[in-house]
Amino acid sequence: MNFKLSEEQHQLQDAVRRIVSAAGYHERLRAVVDGQLSWDEGSWRDLVEFGVPGIVVSDRFGGIGLTMIELALVAEALGYAGAATPFLGHVLATIAIAEGGSEQQREKWLPMLASGEKIASVALSDQNDGWAPEDWRLAPNGSRISGRKINVPAGQIADIFVVGLAGGQLAVVEALTPTVTAEAMDGIDMTRPLAAVEFSDAETELLENGSAGAARMHDAALVLLAADAFGGASRILDMTRDYSLVREAFGAKLAQFQAYKHQLANLAVEVIPTRGLYWFAAYAFENYVERSSHAACLAKAHSAELFLQTARLGTELLGGIGFTWEYDSQIWLKRAMFDFAWGGRPERLFAKAADLAGW
Amino acid sequence: MNLSYSKEYDDYREELRAFLAANWPLPDSLGDLRERTAEFHRRAAKAGYIFRHIPVKYGGGEQQLDFLQSEIIKEEFRRAGAPREPEVIGINRVIPVLLQWGTEEQKDFFIPRTMSREFLWSQGYSEPNAGSDLAALRTRAELVGDKWIINGQKVWSSNAYKCQYMNALVRTESAPRHLGISYLLIDLQQPGIEIRRIKQITGESEFCEVFFNNAETPADWVVGGRGNGWAVSRTTLRHERSGFRSVNWLDTILRRIVKLARETIRDGTPAIEEPHLRREIARVQARLYAMRYSTYRDLSMEAAGEPSGDYLLTQKLYLTDTIHLVERLTRDLLADDYLLMSPGEGRDGLKGNAKWIYNSFHSLKIAIAGGSSNIQRNVVGERVLGLPRDNAGVGGREASGMDQ
After folding, report:
1. Which among A93, A7, A86 is positioned nearest to A45, based on CA atoms?
2. In this complex, do B279 and A302 lie within 8 Å of one another by their Cβ atoms?
3. What interface predicted TM-score (ipTM) does this complex get?
4. Which of A9, A51, A75, B392 has the highest count of CB atoms within 10 angstroms of its CB?
């Protein structure tokens, strides 16, 4: 019995941290934020080479066969770095196929996703607040679909979509013109651009155990966003702390004012314990499947609120510089807004957690 | 990462169950409840189930730190209705201090009698002008012949009126602030000591003021040497249950809130069915999970000999913020019962929803005791975030320690 990371897990997380803090990383991130690059292809290439897309894929299909715990540790590191990669949609599509596909479907799709040869994403919402499988409305006509999905992460660069269908089913669709077209949405988070994807009589492959896959994918989304949010909140905390140690006012560093120090301490007190919550949700995803949804709902709802509140209070503490485009804190404020809304808003998830708790 | 109990722990649980089946309850022939409890505790210590942090030669269980075993013991003792290791200051605070700093004579004399609860202890740290700023304390002891002569006043000493001994911080040296302080053991039952109970907002009188007027204690009842009291009082308490105390308490509170919300009928419907309330209870549960699994992580790292990180320094403030949330939920459920409370001797004497009013006050005690929130914020700011020390030009390096 233990609840700490193994040496291998530390190494894995450190390796990812190195990729998203290497020379040139920050310049690429800023180029994305400033609209000169649409995404950080270089970091994704390094993550692919390291094996990130195949972490939870069985070695039978070309993956490394690790667990949600390792994947969530990666999500935390990417959240801390604000990585502009297609990680979220890609790993969710991968999990949907791994959990919802037949043996043949897994053999067909997983190797190309685990190797990073193709980029995948998930097309779930048909309308506002439509993240849960029971919300999906798009109904197939035989093996073809026509309709529009919104808030699809990295939709413009994805080669493959896992699409949520009416009845909580899932289908795989290749992004072939002219039947599938992705149009950029004006997303708040420049590091995770969103697209609206239009399907016009597009050919699909229905996943054999789609509803089971959809439920697992939804839980996975919540766990990974919770991990991302913890990483992002930690970054805001570090950034605000660092600024307080150099910025002077009234002849002293901001950090020397007790009022400022106490506000930073309040942020730390909320952020630090949240690691345990997302760790447990990741652990439950693997080990307590019947409690997994409950833990995932709590983790995402709480962590996303925490991240957003930390980013907003952090911006307030930074003062005017926090309101500039130039200063990096805006990157994480907007990631916090993404984590808050994408996958389901906290109030709704807390309500679902209460139902699942049996109250 | 593995939260399951391995076979080793299943076996441990089986052995413990067999021990409990054979030893609790004990037959009436072994005396009254107090004597039977004492005998049971002797047997449980010998078997390594209680007093696990205390060596065998003093009658302890002498076990390796193992928080899972500790959880199993708690679960099985509760199941069997067996009396747990007493949570008193003598066992939790004084014995660890003596084990690390005490002389052989001090250990031999005090530890076994403290374990048997023949000796009960009250802590004498705070003074009227030395609370959060503990190093400002002024109670003095002077060595005259083979005795310390003590003058001054302590406050917030829990249960001093019914304790025999005090572990106290007193000024013995002319050196400034924390450098002049020693850790003394003092017999409270002597003419030079007067104890007054403080009536608290709950109606209880657990805390006391203790006045020293030429009180005496033997010269060799100083622990850890003269002028070393500050370090002695900060002895790290490697006590496997301590990390779980607040988590388990919060877990109990959460279960009680759910029960209260089920039993509270509003507009003909149980309050637990109100959407807003359900979400708010889930918010509390998320914070409970955060605490529980951060504690597991900390203890796992500690057991592996790794530095366990920042969580422990944030835990008290996190708990405090959480119980403010809990209090807000309960007062709404209580509605007009929030107007009612009969002062009594603690929670046990209270009926119905008056128990929740007691909890409401208790939540404020948690916020203040053991280092009030702003002191905790200094600690987090300095030790977790690496911000500059407060008051560095005035109070010196010890100014914002976690004192009590």
Report:
1. A86
2. no
3. 0.97
4. A75
